[in-house]
Amino acid sequence: MAKTKSKKYSFINELYESVLNIAEVSRTGTVKLKRADLKQVLEDTFTKGAKLAASGERVRFPVIGVLARREVKSRKAGKGVNPFTGEEIMVKARPESKKPRWSFPKNLKETFANKKNW
To answer: Which pTM value belongs to this model?
Structure first.
């Protein structure tokens, strides 16, 4: 039996297919898109990507970054110190959880780091 590869989610391909489905071509050959339909397509595509990221897949959004799931380890309860008052406090235990993590591409980080763009 041959293994079937699970198809990776492609934001661009998904968006392209959805826009093709809502596009209307007039008799003159111009393509018309309704603003509300386009907004709905964008929201649906981002939502689908977010759900796949929550299930564990790394989802790439071109130019703006990657959305992935991060595993957060559990933490035991213990004593801590309030940095403002110096008073001892009890730190609550934290259960294991999964949280979203956003990674920005290198060129976007460099754009923000360059002071002449401010």
So the answer is: 0.71
